[in-house]
Amino acid sequence: MKKTFPLEAPEHAPQRVIASIKNDVRKYLKRERRKPLPEGVDFWDFDCRVGRDQSSAEETHVNEIIERIDLASREGWTSVYMEILARGGHRAARTESSGPEMEGGLDGDAGAQEYEPKNRVERG
Length: 124
Known about the structure:
Layout: E1 2-6, H1 14-34, E2 43-51, E3 58-60, H2 65-75, E4 79-89
Antiparallel strand pairs: 1-4, 2-3, 2-4
Helix pairs in contact: 1-2
């Protein structure tokens, strides 16, 4: 999707225009993620650019698009240009050092604590 969204509409409140743009972006991302994956691809990744216009658009992570729309609204832009292109992504293999470190492994031998409910009622 390569599109310039106007942030001002005379017949709509500014908050509604922003909400409509966010909805269009989320709907597009959801539609693209539903498409079948090509052979050898793990997930859909997106190359995104956001800016005042096509020439000033900066690369943005897909999770930051909504924040950039809010920023454009706060700064008073008249329009916002968005470029969202889907591409296949590959998951990187986890290494020993990148995973969470646990003491004692899965057994819970070292550093394990007994679970004690806080509101335990003694019955006699």
